[in-house]
Amino acid sequence: MSMVNRHRGELGATLDGQPYTLCLTLGALAEIEAQLGGVDILSLAQRFEGGRITAGEAICILGAGLRGGGNQITDSQVAQMQIEGGVPGYLRLVIDLLHAAFGVTEPGGASSSGGPSFAEATEGRPNAPFPGGAQ
């Protein structure tokens, strides 16, 4: 795994005991939209905000993030990977990946991207779309 650049929305994670870089690039976001039936990413994010995400959606997001981070890996390989903390560990990684991609404010008020928080960037728009995001 190369150095992770949070300013580009990258995130580091250990899966199956191996270090990986994940990044939800524009291509990765388009891949997620296509794999999940053409629903736009903000509509999906609003659903995720309510804490509703399927295992298949988590695999899709992690797979796209791994490929966006430069890893040659399939979703079926992602589905077989292990992470410390089991299912809660996977869900935390999905949430962290979405936060990193969209610069959502982290606990304590610091923006993960160094830019405006998601709440600031979406001022006047309904509901921040990610679990744990500012509302």
Task: Give a brief rundown of this model.
The protein is mainly alpha-helical and 135 residues long. 44% of the residues lie in helices and 9% in strands.
How many E strands? 2
Instruction: Give me the Rg, rounded.
Output: 14 Å
Arrangement of strands in the largest sheet = 1-2
Amount of beta strand? 5-15%
Helix content range of the residues, please? 40-55%
Mean pLDDT over all positions: 78
Distance between the termini: 34 Å
Descriptive account of the structure:
The chain has helices at 26-35, 41-49, 55-68, 75-80, 86-102, 118-121; strands at 10-15, 18-23. It has 135 residues and is mostly helical. The chain has a two-stranded antiparallel sheet with strand order 1-2. A hairpin with a 2-residue loop joins β1 (10-15) and β2 (18-23). α1 runs antiparallel to α3 (55-68) and α3 (55-68) packs across α5 (86-102). The chain starts with 9 loop residues before the first strand and ends in a 14-residue tail after the last helix.
Give the topology, please.
Elements: E1 10-15, E2 18-23, H1 26-35, H2 41-49, H3 55-68, H4 75-80, H5 86-102, H6 118-121
Antiparallel strand pairs: 1-2
